[in-house]
């Protein structure tokens, strides 16, 4: 259906993709994987026609339709939820409008024998046929079904989209995309803003009703549920596995082991040849053999080993100050919003050192109970924190947790104490806030940047109760593993709100299940809990009950207004930041060009006998290669952040 032929994308002479080719077939469900900066999002943009390759082409039938859901998008204003989702059928509405206009003309005209009148009759017949083939007036039912599947309820349909948080508005965009039923769906991190039930619904939709799907996701379980083919991007090349993600991980390990063996064998062959050349270079009787070996060496196609991605965050929480034996005790806690009861009779005790999970459907009260523990909302009943409990809180909505008037540096400087204050710049640099980026105001940071900033705060604050609300949404798979290990080693108490069962596996020893206005305690890990419930996945907790009226999504009116209606000063600040970001990108490009030139010069030296004999040059070559890769990752991140800044100001 789609043919990728000789695709090359270069930056400053360095290929992000190098002459890659593959075919996307009808009904393929492909996971696009690779380390950060490998080019996964770039590949989706090329498929979507947003970015052009340096060389090569993508061929597909003229009438093929493509739908693209980016990680970050510009959301429209002014429509209701139903009106915005119905734009998926704007072509049907245009047909209907034109049909009404033509029929109106037919009723008003009296020149029944004229050519124009007969042309109008033909046009009316054609439009009516197209209208009926497109679903006619029945498309609204399909729109409503999709919105309900993604977590909306009927009373939300007439609410303005501006009343909803960014996560819920992203669901509207996803609904529009799914309703268009394109021949190829391109999805970049589609689960980041979805709750468990909506992920379950999306998994089922993609597996049973979608056509071809190409997606990027850091959710292993989601990839396994949806995809049947995995394409890995590494070192500018692609490796195609006709298997799901988990099976790919096994096959990739085998391939890497084979690569290492082949590489080692080739290196031995090269070394033996070079030794022979060096030994007999100046002996006339061996001149022919030496020349033959030199030519043989020149013809060898050097093998490369896939580099492991070691650039993830390395997290280590500071020692936890000792708290009382019971950090959280709740007795008959009840919470309502107006007449709507969230939960009642919640009685639980969390012991010092416990690592617990809050699981259940969105809207059943997981985050609400966290707010009760944090003292951010009122409630009935008794809820006490133990002696000397110090809370560290990481949540999805960073906007409400960080002081938007502070800069990145000021945010960290405020919580840093002791000797660590002398290392703030180094810490910020390690989290991609180096140089002028540390002077950014929090209010202009993207969601991913705010997540990283909040993570740094957690690393610096000595706490003994960690509360983490969906902490993995902006982390790649390796970073999730690193965070998981850091939490396991943390000697305090941990509460994790998450739909990521792979992340929770082996991490928590107690599960609190939220549902039906109750909270039930299960003294086991996440998979033991699922077995007890006779379920395979957490998603099965979220299967909707027939005819059940769901809670309205929570809105963030002030936050949304402040995000979408920038003042003159804020726009001015954004303008300055855009210029700084463009300058940073230009500087990074210059660094890459300089490193590439240095590497090319070094390779010329390595090609000489003296150079090949100097092992320190090989070490320098390896360092240059790594430096170039790091700068490329920085460039891609800076470019993405620039796009986000421009989206904010537009």
UniProtKB/TrEMBL annotation:
The keyword Lipid metabolism does not apply. GO terms for molecular function: ATP binding; ATP hydrolysis activity. Residues 2-260, 328-541 form the ABC transporter domain. The keyword Cell membrane does not apply. Keywords: ATP-binding, Coiled coil, Nucleotide-binding, Repeat. It comes from the Bacteria. InterPro entries: AAA+_ATPase, ABC_tran_Xtn, ABC_transporter-like_ATP-bd, ABC_transporter-like_CS, ABCF_ATPase, P-loop_NTPase. Pfam families: ABC_tran, ABC_tran_Xtn. PROSITE patterns: ABC_TRANSPORTER_1 (PS00211), ABC_TRANSPORTER_2 (PS50893). PANTHER family: ABC TRANSPORTER ATP-BINDING SUBUNIT (PTHR42855), DRUG RESISTANCE ABC TRANSPORTER,ATP-BINDING PROTEIN (PTHR42855:SF2). Belongs to the ABC transporter superfamily. ABCF family. YbiT subfamily. This is Probable ATP-binding protein YbiT.
